[in-house]
Amino acid sequence: MPGLTSPAKSPDAWWRNGVIYQIYPRSFQDANGDGIGDLTGIRQRLGYVAALGVDAIWISPFFPSPMADFGYDVADYCDVDPRFGSLADFDALMAEAKALGLRVILDLVPNHTSDRHPWFVQSRSSRTDPKRDWYLWRDPAADGGPPNNWLSNFGGPAWTLDPLTGQYYAHMFLKEQPDLNWRYPDVRRAIYDAMRFWLRRGVDGFRVDVIYHLIKDQLFRNNPPNPAFIPGGDPAHRLLPEYTADLPEVQSIVMEMRRVLDEFGSAESSRVLIGEVYLPVQRLMNYYGMDAAGVLRGAQLPFNFHLIGAKWQAQVIDRLVREYEAALPPGAAPNWVLGNHDKPRIASRVGAAGARLAAMLLLTLRGTPTLYYGDELGMTDVPIPMTEVQDPFEKREPGRGLGRDPQRTPMLWHADEQNAGFTATRPWLRLGSDWQSLAVDRQLGEERSILQLYRRLLSLRRHSRSLHEGAWSPIGARGNVLMYARGDGPERLVVLLNFGREQASVDLQALRHASQSLLHVWLSTLQDRDEQLAEAVPLRPEEGLILGRGHRPG
Ligand code: TEU
Ligand code: CA
Fold first, then answer.
1. pLDDT score, position 375
2. HSE (CB half, 13 Å, CA atoms) of 262?
3. pLDDT at position 517, please?
């Protein structure tokens, strides 16, 4: 039957079109009643994640850490922080995930360690310590100040003076997160060994934190001023990171990391390297690592964050998708992200109806989508009173709207349980006032909830070959309606997304070249229509539709 195909499974390269679900471990499920999520909690909730219909989870860091940046300051790359559990808990989680058919991706933080990591403790102990060169130490400037003008992403200079040896060390983030010296071979080896430690335990890949920051200018030149900087904005944007990010030499490291993964698989390896890269589309493409022969040797998925910053307009999104699709090297896997633990939640950026439209967009574009936990519930940013702030970024730069606590609040499980079933005690971050209406069990009982929309979209993606792996072809943006097709021939389907707050109508004639015959509404973001279309497709405000031939598969 046209449009009806068995799930397109290509087990070797699941990451080409599988769906990744990001879990922030502090906030998913607390199993031992301390108000902080943990690995056992995640394991207990894997049934929900599998039933949602995703392919993999990515867990933000759970390694031993003083938690200056909530785990992005690692003190031991090969263990579990007691607050999150133990290695045995991790193994149990891994086994449960495997049993449910879920892949597990870990968060590798190689740009910096915690200042409590034994490597840094040794490095700072003396100028002649064998680990001195593992970090970036420099003499003070002539006036005793920092060696250059580099800025920390969290505000203030990227240099801190260590009185013990009279030198400054570099840190792109907090002073509790000293940057490793990736020009130094021993550093590379040590991190690659940590990767192997987890690969041997069965993990399916890594999301690599700020992979594009790993190499800094060897001459430590000053970063130039950013002419586009708006006073009052993120203070780190005062300078352009010309000498601290995306240096050409970083590409050889990306390829080395990929080779470590490939030790555990084939070329189309089932182990995946995901790079956290905030860069313009063209520069992002370098991270696929295409060599002279056209072989992709870099990250299989350099994160594409462009939907996060894009203006929420049909024309803008149309241009963005075209630009990104056109820029991809041959054979490269596209990917899309709507949000993460660092960015305001999608439902707060575009509203409740917009969040549904965004879900349809994310899950009908070509390639690998990454979902942020709770976005499937339509969770919004939770305002955190000053006295309850946890995020070090907010503490350092208060009141600028840069803090990341609002998007890190506990997952909402049960409408009738204390703290939504996240914890039996006071949670580390408060719940939003609307938590009961958003809870998983409440939404599962509602036919047309956003959670049901996510489940339907994920099921459709799995059952429709066109959505799962078909080509993406633009139809265009007419007024507020973004239109594109997926797949070829009789299986081709059409997606219409009305970004406007008014009704819109699309002439079927206009879609004729994209469709072969009568079209059915397979899915509406409002989940209340199922009709066969005659001449025009009426779209309600902020409604999205998937149109296909015949009946909806799955
Ligand atoms: O984020 C890198 C990054 O670019 C963010 O720090 C961003 O600039 C900031 O959050 C404002 O949006 C990664 C992690 O995702 C983040 O949680 C860590 O704090 C950071 O690296 C340091 O490891
Ligand atoms: Ca706990």
1. 98
2. 14
3. 64
pLDDT in tens, 78-93: 999 999 999 999 999 9
Closest residue by Cα to atom 5, ligand 1, is 342
| Ligand 2 midpoint to CA 57 (Å) | 19
User: Residue 196 corresponds to which amino acid?
Assistant: R
Mean pLDDT of the chain: 95
Strand partners, 507: 536
Asked if residue 546 lies in contact with residue 495, where contact means CB atoms within 8 angstroms, the answer is yes
Per-residue pLDDT at 513: 60
- Rounded mean pLDDT of 465-487? 96
pTM score, whole prediction: 0.96
pLDDT (mean) for 367-381: 98
Q: What are phi and psi of 111, to 5 degrees?
A: -70, -30
CA distance 95 to 91: 6
Distance from C-alpha of 204 to C-alpha of 335, rounded to nearest angstrom: 17
For residue 251, which of 184, 204, 298, 189 has the smallest C-alpha distance? Answer: 298
Crossing angle of helices 346-364/450-463, nearest 10°?
20
Whole-angstrom Cα distance, residue 86 to residue 539? 51
> What residues are in contact with ligand 1 under a 6 Å CB criterion?
69, 72, 109, 153, 173, 209-210, 278, 341-343, 404
Strands 504-507 vs 536-539: parallel, antiparallel or unpaired: antiparallel
Q: Which ligand is located closest to the Cα atom of residue 82?
A: 2
At residue 483, the 3 state secondary structure works out as: strand
User: Given the CA of residue 173, which atom of ligand 1 is nearest to it?
Assistant: 22
